[in-house]
Amino acid sequence: MEAAVEFDKTLSFDREAEILKVLGHPVRLKIVAGLMSQSCNVKKIWECLELPQATVSQHLALLKNKGIIEGRREGVEVYYQVVCEEARKIVGALFECMSCR
User: Fold this and answer.
1) Hey, where are the domains in the chain?
2) Which of 4, 28, 54, 101 is the most buried (most CB within 10 A)?
3) CA atoms within a 13 Å half-sphere pointing along the CA-CB vector of 26
4) CATH class of 17-99
5) Do the beta carbons of residue 35 and residue 88 sit within 8 Å?
6) Residue 81: φ, ψ to 5°
7) How far does Cα 37 stand from its chain's mean position?
8) pTM (2 decimals)?
9) Given a cut of 80, is residue 2 above it in pLDDT?
């Protein structure tokens, strides 16, 4: 016999849902996954992903606007890093699931 399921209508998952929407694109997932281990500039990211610079810049802008990454200027370069702990946990959980395949 299954236990009764209770739903808590007072819980708000607005921020979590927003993070999931932003991470719901393969390119953005790859960017966040790569930035979890080291900060990188846009050139390194587009070279590693073999994508046009404009495409990577658009995805970086969205991730930055949603508070998932931040840029740090060093001279003319901007180095990006993941600053959203929820995003780190979500991508980390995906890595764990992928390793179970």
Assistant:
1) 17-99
2) 28
3) 2
4) mainly alpha
5) no
6) -145, 155
7) 12
8) 0.86
9) no
Q: Which of 76, 97, 101 has its CA nearest to residue 29?
A: 97
- CA distances in angstroms from 21 to 52, 56, 68, 100, 101, listed in the order given: 23, 17, 12, 24, 24
- Token pair of 8 as six digits: 């808590």
Single-letter amino acid code for the residue at 19:
I
Q: Find the distance separating the first CA and the last CA of the chain, reported in whole Å.
A: 30
Contact partners, residue 68, CB within 8 Å, separation at least 6:
19, 22, 23, 32, 82, 83, 84, 87
d(CA 60, CA 80): 8
